[in-house]
Structure formats: C-alpha cells, structure tokens
Design brief:
Strand 4 and strand 5 (120-122) form a beta hairpin. The protein has helices at residues 2-18, 24-43, 47-50, 58-76, 130-141, 174-189, 196-217, 224-256, 262-284, 294-298, 303-313, 316-325, 330-341, 345-355, and strands spanning 45-46, 88-90, 98-105, 114-116, 120-122, 125-127, 145-152, 165-166. The protein is mainly alpha-helical. Helix 1 (2-18) packs antiparallel against helix 2 (24-43), helix 7 (196-217) packs antiparallel against helix 8 and helix 12 (316-325) crosses helix 14. The termini are far apart. The strands form 3 sheets. The chain has a 3-stranded mixed β-sheet. Strands 6-3-7 form a 3-stranded antiparallel β-sheet. The protein has a two-stranded antiparallel ribbon with strand order 4-5.
C-alpha cells in the first residue's frame, strides 16, 4: 500500500513540469495544489500513534477514537470503500483544509467549469490558501463574473491517496463529523467527471442516510435519541433553507432569459435577492433563535453563491426516491446509481427528473 502511495506522490512531481505547457496561471494553480497535497501527505500521522501521545487534548482524543468507529461503520454497514482512508491525522493550524471558488456569469445560473488531471471537470476550483482563493475570485470579478468563496473542512482525492483526517474536520459535532466522512467516502465509491450536481447530491444522500443509520444503531444509545432528534431538526431546517433558495434561483433563471437592458436586469436581480433575504427573516422567526444561516444570507446572494445550493442538493430528492425503490438496500442503491452514472448527461438528468416528477 505504501509503495502505491509513493508512486502516486512521484507522479505528482512529474506532472508539475508538464503543466508548464498550460500557461502561467495554470502553472501557479497546479503548483499550489500539488504543494498543498504533498504537505498534507507528509504531515500525516497514524491515528493509532497519535492516540498514544499523553499530551493530546481530551476533545481531540475523543474525536479521533470516534473517527475509528465511523470508519468501521462506513465499511461494515454502509459498504463504502474505506481501505486506509482517514486512518491518519494532520493538525492544520487553520480553520479549513481548502477554499473553493465558484463563479458564474452575471446573468446566468450556469457555473463555470474547471478541469483537472485527476478529478476531471468540476464547477469549483480549490485552493489550499484562503488568500489565493480570494485573489482568484477577485480576478474573476474583474472579468464581470459573480463569485463565491467557501471554506471546506474535508475533501476526497477519489482514492488516489489515503486521505488524512484534517483537524478542520474535528471542529464539527459527532453527527456532522460522521456525515463528512460518509460524504467523502461516497465520492470514492461513485464520481462522474463533469457532473458536480450528480456527484454532490449522491454524496449528500449517502451522508444523510448514513448519519441517521449510525445514530440509530450506535451501541452507547443512552444519549442518542436526543442526538437523533437534533439531527432531524437540523435536517428539517436545511430542507426549509433549500426550499427557500431554489425558487429564488429559478426566478433568476427566468429573468435571465428575457432580453432586457443591463441596468434593468441588474435592478430586477437585486429585487429578487432582497426578497429572498426578507423571506429568510420570516422563515427564521419560527426557528426558536437558531441563526445558523445568517452569515450565508449576509453575503452577496449572487449567482455563484446560489449555485452552491443547487449543486449540493439538486438531485437529493431523486436519490432519496431511488434508495426507497431499493427498499433501503444500500448495495442495490449504489448499483442503481452507478447505472445512472453510465448514461449520457442528458439521459442521466432525464432519469433523475423522472424519479421526482413533482419537484
């Protein structure tokens, strides 16, 4: 296993000079990506060894022990490709492992796409430095694009490397930590180049289903009914949030199809954004003081930011229905999802729409 990892690291070092042919901007991007990935790999420590350190903070120790439990659950119950994934730990000394940049044209819902040698094409570009991510976003803004920068606590290399647990993952509560691990392992199970909405919606469904199964079957169940209730309450708020944002995104899509002067287009776009903020305040009034989405609504609410909601949630109802059609059998569900992944993009979207015709 270690020999395979070393071979892949060597390949990264070979790839960088080749990318000189793609231009200075691409070279700069790939240089930071490769350097960032190598830094993570070199800092990895086996969790088993980390747990032997008597100076390890109690909270970190508890969460790393939980990671070991979650890996086993993902393998034995969720049938996800665990292998050596998340068996090592890296203390980042920062809040996020990467920052993703999303971009769209000013009057379009369609996100920009970037293509990579390993992961294929995706509708975001990741940076190991927040400053670099924001600098790239600024340059895109200067070209007239809407942009959004979001911090990410974990990501998957799709099985190319044994991904470590970055300390950013441990800033979450137990259920969120479980969901993050299940989500990223789902990407290693199924990933379609160029179809970010499919990939993220599939992984989100696996995450949500896995969280619920884990809380329902955890051996120390004395405190879990409350944890499960909190998870379901948080899930309900998330669904309400998505149900609030998607109609506004659709309204913007209808607006952009009209042949209007640019000033009027901008004015109507701003009106939709203002109305969305007002609707959020009305929704939040029934949340008993919960304000977890305040920071999100304090941002621009531009096309790029709104696109992240549809990217991660667009096909979740379809995958929920697909799982139900398999009577909750995960192996059959994974195979059904794999069959969808083999279709052309147009056929795949049509099949997913057919699963939720009333959506």
């Amino acid at each position: 296993m270690q020999a395979g990892q070393n071979a892949r690291i060597a390949m990264l070092l070979v790839v960088l000079p080749i990318l000189l042919l793609t231009g200075c901007e691409s070279l700069s991007y790939y240089h930071q990506a490769i350097a960032g990935q190598l830094s993570l790999l070199r800092q990895r420590q086996d969790i088993a060894a980390v747990l032997q350190d008597p100076a390890l903070p109690v909270s970190t120790r508890q969460q790393l022990v939980l990671v070991q439990e979650l890996r086993n659950f993902a393998d034995q119950t969720l049938h996800l490709p665990v292998h050596r994934q998340y068996s090592t730990y890296v203390d980042l000394h920062r809040d996020f492992v990467v920052w993703n940049v999303f971009a769209t044209p000013e009057f379009s819902r369609v996100p920009e796409q970037w293509c990579y040698p390993v992961a294929g094409c995706a509708s975001y570009r990741g940076y190991f430095s927040e400053a670099a991510a924001r600098d790239f976003a600024l340059r895109l803004q200067q070209k007239g694009l809407d942009t959004y920068v979001g911090g990410v606590s974990a990501y998957s290399t799709l099985g190319w490397f044994n991904d470590p647990v970055p300390s950013s993952m441990l800033r979450r509560d137990d259920a969120q930590l479980a969901g993050t691990i299940f989500h990223e392992l789902a990407h290693q199970l199924l990933y379609v180049s160029g179809d970010t909405a499919f990939n993220e919606s599939f992984a989100t469904l696996v995450e949500q289903d896995g969280q619920q199964r884990w809380l329902q079957t955890r051996p120390d169940a004395s405190g879990q009914p409350q944890a499960l209730a909190e998870l379901l309450k948080d899930r309900q708020r998330q669904q309400q949030f998505v149900a609030l944002v998607l109609p506004a995104t659709a309204a913007l899509g209808r607006l952009y199809q009209q042949a209007l002067p640019v000033p009027e287009m901008r004015s109507r776009k701003a009106a939709i954004q203002t109305k969305l903020r007002q609707h959020y305040q009305q929704l939040k009034a029934g949340w008993d003081g919960y304000n977890g989405y305040d920071r999100w609504f304090a941002a621009d609410l531009n096309n790029a930011q709104l696109s992240t909601v549809s990217t991660y949630n667009q096909w979740v109802p379809a995958f929920q229905e697909l799982l139900q059609k398999q009577d909750g059998d995960l192996l059959r569900f994974y195979e059904a999802a794999r069959q969808l992944s083999l279709l052309s993009p147009a056929e795949r979207q049509q099949r997913l729409r057919e699963l939720v015709p009333d959506a």
